[in-house]
Structures are given as structure tokens and as C-alpha cells.
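User: My collaborator sent over this chain with a note saying "see what the structure looks like." That's all I know about it. Can you take a look?
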Amino acid sequence: MRMWWVIGGIFWMVSLAAVGEAQRPRPASSDVDIRRLIEMFRRGWEQNDAEALRRACAPGIVMLSFGRRDRGIEEVVEHLRVTSQHFPQAELQMEQLEIRPMGAVAWAHAEARYVQKTAHGMALAYTGYASFLLERQRGGWRITQVDLNVRPETPAPSTVAAEGASLEGAWLLESAKDLTTGRSLSQGAMLLLTRSRFALLAVAPDRRPPRQKQLAEYSKRELLELMRGVEGSVGEYRREGNRLALIPVFAFFPEMTGEPQVFENVRLDRERLSVEWEARGRRLLMTWRRVE
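Assistant: Without extra context I'll predict from the sequence alone. Here is the result:
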């Protein structure tokens, strides 16, 4: 009889241990899968890995970033390809990732820091957040929407030419040449510069956006209003040596991707401003004439 009591006690202790193990908190499989997927997206974006993005994202993904809305995985991959031409090095950090599964969908949110570096070593840093919407599909979880909402870490400083002359004003595109082929390109653009903000407009040479006050007095919102109905890009800019970094907060301009752009070899000669700009695989020499 005593033997049976001993055996029964052993079974009772084993049962308690099994119950305790079963009740021990474990990360849900959905949570683990979603974290793995977001990490795959982060590394893919950081390393310009198109295949990693295709594995992490649904074919119909929508991505919002730098004023752009990319629909479909192929647009997202193309966006990254063009961006990497201007900024071959990038670092995307995500911290404090929160995940909320809700059945067949899940929402994730993280603090984000994004750093881009040009081939010349100039770094542009942004902070903000990244949000993800995911759906459980036949092949598992996939990212269906991304909102990378980041802004420059520090306000752009006042921009002054090396000679002490200000770049503020309205500049009309006078000439544009493809430096590779030597061909002249069609004109029709205007560049508006305040102390630290810019607006790049695709307009006809004889067109002027309506204004009721001095250009330097316009806020970012008012510059956006000037662009209503006109293709263009608005944002902040800063100068480092002979380079001008344009950081869009809104972009709908034929030659802009919504990513930061760099004007190189910036030269100011009285009422003429010349810059070199690499856009869509072409290196352009552009000369602007001050009209205000």
C-alpha cells in the first residue's frame, strides 16, 4: 500500500510540473512571426534587398514615406532602387516595437531613426515612427501597409552662399544640359528659396505662381498652397560646402522621388545660380536666373 502512495505522489508532482510549464507565459507564435517579418523588411530596406522586401510584403502593399505613396511591391522596390543611387548607405533603426494582433490582421508600431549617406559622405538623419499593418494570408503573415513617418532631426540652418550673398528668392530655370550626352533639355521649372525652405515647381517659363508678399515670409504650409494644381516639391534645405541638400516633406515633381536630393557644385555668379544634379540616372547641369 505504501508503494502505491509513493507512486501516486510522484505522478501528482509530475502533473503539477506539467501544468506549471503549460501555464508559463510564452510569446505567441503570431507575435514571433510578425517580429521576424518586420525585421526582414527593415534589413531589406536598409540593405537594398528587393527579394527580402518581396518575401516580407504582400503584392498589393501600400507604402507612405517622404511624401510618396507607393502602391504595389514593384513600386516600393523601384523607389528603393532609385533612392540607393543617391544614397548608397542607409541605416534604419526601430525601437520599442509594439504589436497588437487582432485575429487575421495585426498592427505594429515602432520608434524609428533613418540615416542616409551620399557617396560623398554627407549624412542626413531623420527620426519619427514606423507603423505596419499586416494580414494573415494563405502563406502566412504579410505586410500590407507601411507608414514611415520621419522628419529631419534638426531644423535646417540658414543657407548663405560662400561670398555672403543670400540664395533667397525666386529662380527660373534658364538652361539644363545632360552632362553625359551633351544634349540640352526642355526648360520649365522654378526654384523658390526662403532662408531654410524650398519649393521646386514644374511651370512654363512665362508662368509665375501668384504671391501677395515677399517670398521669405512664406511658411511651409503657404508654399504648399502656392503649388496647388502645379507639379512640385516642398521641403527644407541646407548647404554643406558647395552642396545643397533638398529634404522634401511633399513631392510631386517629375524628377523627384520624394527622397532627399543633392545639388552639387553649387555656384552663384551675380544673378545666376548653377548646380549639378543627378536625377534618374542622368547628371544634369542646370543654370537658374534670379527673377525675384
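A starting point for your reply to your collaborator: The CA atoms of residues 60 and 72 lie 4 Å apart.
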